[in-house]
Amino acid sequence: MLSDDELLRYSRQILIPRFDISGQEKLKSARVLVLGAGGLGCPVALYLGAAGVGTLTLVDDDDIELANLQRQIGFESGQLGESKAENLAERVRRINPLVCVSALNQRLGGDALARAVAEATLVVDCTDNFNTRFALNRACVAAKVPLVSGAAIRGEGQISVYDSRLNSSPCYHCLYPEQGNEDLTCSEAGVIAPLVGMIGSAQAMEAIKVISGVGTPLVGRLLILDAWEMQWREMKLARDPSCPVCSG
Ligand SMILES: [Zn+2]
Hints:
Layout: H1 4-9, H2 11-14, H3 20-29, E1 31-35, H4 41-51, E2 55-59, H5 84-95, E3 100-104, H6 110-118, E4 122-125, H7 130-143, E5 147-153, E6 156-162, H8 172-175, H9 186-189, H10 193-212, E7 221-226, E8 231-236
Parallel strand pairs: 1-2, 1-4, 2-3, 4-5
Antiparallel strand pairs: 5-6, 6-7, 7-8
The structure holds zinc ion.
């Protein structure tokens, strides 16, 4: 199933006994939907594309701005005003022409979001607003598609995995009530550059673990990073039996 080119390109991870050729073949067969092509979406797309995820769809309706370049490492100064999704997809193709990358230069919602999620093996949430996060969580629970969630602001980051194929897994809504959450975005509160790389890289790693079945994904666990103190805390997450999204 893997060509000689692929065996050589991915040899450094195929060499890992627990991952091996079977892990690589699972990556090749996977279809990953990445929502958001910003600070988190850049490292997620670059790593998953380079590592050989067979089909990637990158979704973002924003254009590249000067203030993005401090942390959104998929982009260059010559691309200001151009589409984030399209430029990031092109960058992944230049790194790895063996994977199929498509860009959606739009904000996905409603039926279009539900369809895109249902077609995916796994979804990575790299967005920065609560409305999209909740809509994405509902779509993932409905389609039973695992969701790798990440967030970064100022010097603080969070990451977890919600896998509604598992009865014990909480969903994003179990953790956060839908009302009363204010959007606090990086454009208002700021963010230190490498933090988005740390959280985005961890999201890419979790995606590879869930797809390959190797290792222990962050299901039922929330990791919280204080980058200024360089401390990671782990919180156990339980499923909310009265959650309106994933229970009943
Ligand atoms: Zn829930």
